[in-house]
Amino acid sequence: MSDIYNVSSTQSTQYQQEIQRKSLEANDGLGQDAFFKILITQLQNQDPLNPMEDRDFISQMAEFTSLEKTEKLYSLLEDKLSSNQVIDNSSLIGKEITANVEGVKLEGIVNAVKSSKDKVLAVLDTGSEIDISNITQVKNIEAEEL
Fold first, then answer.
1. Which of 72, 79, 77 has the alpha carbon at shortest distance from 31?
2. pLDDT at 36
3. 90-146: per-residue pLDDT in tens?
4. 145: which residues sit within 8 A by CB, 6+ positions away?
5. What is the C-alpha separation between 22 and 37, in angstroms, rounded?
6. Where do the domains of the chain lie, and which CATH numbers do they carry?
7. Which of UniProt's keywords are assigned here (predicted)?
8. In this structure, what are the phi and psi dihedrals at residue 40, rounded to the nearest 5 degrees?
9. Which of 51, 94, 128, 132 could anchor a disulfide with 124, C-beta 3.0 to 4.6 Å?
10. Which candidate, 2, 5, 72, 86, places its Cα nearest to that of 32?
11. Coil, strand or helix: which one is 136?
12. How far apart are the first and last CA of the chain?
């Protein structure tokens, strides 16, 4: 009789691992909903003669809470980094730049610097938006050119 429980337990564990793997592949991480689905499945399929101990349950909840807080902190740090990059590159405003974008040489005066997705862009007087990493030269504008 104990063999039946072991097979059932093994199948349940394999099923849970497959759910976790598919969830990770689809989302590049577990969200709160996926975590609770796995936890509920785990609780439903546990051996009634050997249930999950309270401390194991509490440990899993604590780990998830810690992970959730870490993800929020990471998101805040990414936002701060993006903001700092815009501030750092704001010194380009009013300067003439040359950039190489896909083999095309672009020139213009920087009117603004902005953040877009994972990039910092220089907005030129021509209306073009150039990724800061493509800038090859920065020059001061002479007084007579203004």
1. 72
2. 78
3. 889 999 999 998 999 999 999 999 888 778 899 999 998 999 889 999 998 875 555
4. 96
5. 13
6. 2-85 (no CATH), 89-145 (2.30.30)
7. Bacterial flagellum biogenesis, Cell projection, Cilium, Flagellum
8. -65, -45
9. 128
10. 72
11. strand
12. 90
Q: Model confidence at 10, in pLDDT bands (50, 70, 90)?
A: very low
- Please check whether residue 85 is in contact with residue 115, taking contact to mean a CB–CB distance below 8 angstroms: yes
Q: How far apart are CA 113 and CA 90, in angstroms?
A: 6
Structure tokens at 18: 């497959």
What's the rounded Cα separation, in Å, for the pair 69 and 1?
Answer: 44
Which residue(s) pair with 115 in the sheet?
Answer: 120
- The answer to whether the CB of 128 falls within 8 A of the CB of 106 is yes
Output the pTM of the full model: 0.49
Segments of the chain assigned E as strands:
96-101, 104-116, 119-124, 129-131, 135-139
Question: φ and ψ at 116, to 5 degrees?
Answer: -140, 115
For the chain, what is the mean pLDDT? 77
Report the Cα 109 to chain-centroid distance in Å.
33
Most confident range, picked from 11-20, 50-59, 100-109? 100-109
